[in-house]
Amino acid sequence: MVDPALSPPFKDLLLFLATAGVVVPLFTRLRIGATLGFLTAGVALGPFGLGALTDEAPWLEALTIARPEEFEQLAELGVAFLLFSIGLELSWERLRLMRRLVFGLGTVQLAVATLALGGGLLLVVRDPEAAFVTGAALALSSTAMAVPGLSRRHRLHAPAGRAAFAVLLFQDLAVAPLLAAIGLFATRQAGVGLETLYALAPAALILAALIVGGRLLLRPLMKLVARAKSQELFMAAALLVVIGSGVATSLAGLSMALGAFVAGVLLAETEYRHEVEVTIEPFAGLLLGLFFLSVGVRLDLAALWESTRLVAGLTLGLLALKAMVNLVACRLFGLSPGASLEAALALAGGGEFAFVILGHASGAEIVPAALMRPLLVAVTLSMFATPGLVALGGYLERRVSARDLRRDPSAPPPERRGRVIIVGMGRVGRLVADILDERGLAWTAVDRDPRAVSAERRRGRLIHFGDGSRIELLDRIGLAEAPALVVTMDAPDGVEAVVGTARHHHPDLVIVARARDDRHAARLYRLGATSAVPEAFEASLQLSEALLLDLGEPSDDVGELIRNRRRAFRDSISAPPLDEARR
């Protein structure tokens, strides 16, 4: 009897966790990258890697992923979480501004790439329908490969990153019509009839319901969960939003990623955006790693050896044709030469939805079975090449931009100053915010009380719901660019957590913190606070100042006396920060 702990699902899970915990950190340490770590592990652990040797060495079965098909749905969730995170960075207004790139550049790229690739394949398959479907499948690019590479290099919000993302978004929208077209070809019905409309109607209705329902229900739902003050419940609600929206669009024939993206855009306009982003980040990272692992598992090494020339020709032709089409399309839409080159290379590889399109086409007997294996291997190899192409595109963009700058030098853009960050928006925090407003200084705040956050939002103030002691949250609202951090919470332990965390990650940051008394202020100074203001001491100074002025003492003398006492008190309780004291 087989031990249940060693059954295929548990064994495959252990292999994936070993990859995430051992193999990927090793690749990262060697500066190769987590993506290639997961891809390489997928090839090695898959049925075409070590799995092909189990007949000669049965013990290798323990190191082989036995049921890769069971990873598929979880791997698709990885792409959905990625698109959800991207949606959190956008808003309906930003999407409206991107409509020219999404529906203009996206349409041109997909149409011309489909015609170019389909025309080339027509020389091989001699069937216009098969060439069209295959060309459309190959024209799709990989969101899961391109976006993380651009994001890691902080290029997602650059012109090339925005163009690439717009094209990827349009391609996601085009998956449902392409599947409907395959259904038409399968029944040999020319033109667009009622069958197509019936196929697309549920998708349009569910997408509209998701948008309307999300705008009405998402904020009240997150507010209700936030009031429970339970991190576990908040996490469950965030996962429900991502997975639920993805499943809804999947049932309508659209991709899960598109539904998750819409949910992210809807949440981006709420005060819970950053806390949700921090909460789901570990899940997104693991599931995206699972997606990369599944891509590696798909690589059929036998087909690669058997049809080396055909696979190499398909792969290189796919990359070259798409890169040229992308470059021309980006230039037509006004991108600079460097940005066009970067976007073209980021979108040159095949995409995850190519497997979906080709799978449906194979089931409908549109694409010849003899061509399917080399096509799938070529798409997989092109996805393997995408991280390197993203890096190459960024390098070439810098070189081209530097050359253009030497030809046409101009003054650098003015340095942007970040916002002061206020942690805690009670009475003290609101007073600090009012004073900053009077001085014309920009600020943003974070608070754990959903009622306080909602009240400040109604006043038009920029405030987010979340735990200020989490450095991931502070970094997402701009701590790295902030001129100062002000901690005004009335919980001493919470203040210490925020100060210690912020100082550890940002040694040069100005940190001003509210202290309960002199001993609490001393602890905050040791944790790295630039200034700690004890409530009792400041109250006594204000009382003394008011008394002396009422007794007729000169205001200049009183002011000097108060300043000296404040300075002496601070010198008596302050000490070097903990890190400096250890040195």
Characterise the protein shown here:
- The protein is built from 25 helices and 6 strands.
- The protein is mostly helical.
- Helix 1 packs across helix 2 and helix 7 (143-152) runs antiparallel to helix 8 (159-186).
- The protein starts with 7 loop residues before the first helix and ends with a helix.
- 43% of the residues are buried.
For the structure shown, list the relevant keywords.
mainly alpha; six-stranded parallel sheet; 25 helices; elongated; disordered C terminus
Topology (elements, then pairings):
Layout: H1 8-29, H2 34-45, H3 72-88, H4 92-97, H5 99-125, H6 128-139, H7 143-152, H8 159-186, H9 194-227, H10 231-251, H11 256-268, H12 273-298, H13 301-306, H14 308-332, H15 337-346, H16 352-363, H17 369-407, E1 420-423, H18 427-438, E2 443-447, H19 450-458, E3 463-465, H20 471-476, E4 484-487, H21 492-505, E5 510-515, H22 518-527, E6 531-534, H23 535-550, H24 555-573, H25 578-582
Parallel strand pairs: 1-2, 1-4, 2-3, 4-5, 5-6
Helix pairs in contact: 1-2, 2-12, 3-7, 3-11, 3-12, 5-6, 5-8, 5-14, 6-16, 7-8, 7-17, 8-9, 8-15, 8-16, 9-10, 9-11, 10-11, 14-15, 14-17, 15-17, 16-17, 21-22, 23-24
